[in-house]
Design a protein that fits this description.
InterPro entries: PRTase-like (IPR029057), PRTase_dom (IPR000836), Upp_B (IPR034332), UPRT (IPR005765), UPRTase/APRTase (IPR050054). It contains seven helices and twelve strands. The chain has helices spanning about 5-10, 20-30, 35-55, 90-100, 145-160, 175-180, 210-215, and strands at about 15, 60-65, 70-75, 80-85, 105-115, 120-125, 135-140, 140-145, 165-170, 185-195, 195, 205. The chain binds 1-O-pyrophosphono-5-O-phosphono-alpha-D-ribofuranose, uracil and magnesium ion.
Amino acid sequence: MTREELLNTYQDIHLVTHPFVKHKLTSLRDKNTSTREFRMLVEELGTLIGYEATRDIETLDVEIETPLEKAMCPVLKGKKLCIVTIMRAGNGLAEGVLKLSPSARVGHVGLYRDPETKQPVEYYLKMPHSVNERTIIVVDPMLATGNSAIMAIDKMKEMGAKDIRFICLFAAPEGIEAFKAVHPDVAMYIGAIDQGLDENAYIRPGVGDAGDRIYGTR
Ligand SMILES: O=P(O)(O)OC[C@H]1O[C@H](OP(=O)(O)OP(=O)(O)O)[C@H](O)[C@@H]1O
Ligand SMILES: O=c1cc[nH]c(=O)[nH]1
Ligand SMILES: [Mg+2]
């Protein structure tokens, strides 16, 4: 499917088109952007896209007392959010989402993509308790084939998660289609939908290897 077909087919694919987001994504694409700047931009984008991804979380009215009178006012309802980072590149994005909700719980899923098979290999998993009662926000800057995000969300569902959202910065149309085929119930919040994958399953034009650029490895 093309980018337009995907957006027309799935109501819950949210492309975040704010000019600040577009500008910061362009800085990430630039090969001359430094490691320090890249890491800061990823975090900032986590906050901006995280804001959109949490727009509909529930509130409940409680009585408080202002200096002048009592009033019923909204507060966040239910258990703390759970932000799940797909390591390692997801960590920077998770820090940005945490700025919105500093008391959120954080889950870690360690996956690396095997360079030959392009399949994710799990090396770590740690989640907070009561996953079934929390809004789960899975974050990873890159959705290429979609296999890593699909596997991470499989694990959340195996643990009983029901309300799951996914945030990424750059997605390939192929990856979105694969993701939606397996997880049609998971809303996606995306910075940019790029042209597609190259022969090494890298997103084009993309940013290259996001993890390497965040941490200065290579
Ligand atoms: O959609 P996919 O084809 O699965 O590819 C995307 C995955 O690849 C990257 O991680 P990588 O395996 O490079 O690990 P890293 O974060 O440690 O660099 C990226 O951060 C995603 O997790
Ligand atoms: O383009 C890509 C694809 C997978 N992982 C990345 O970091 N970048
Ligand atoms: Mg990587």
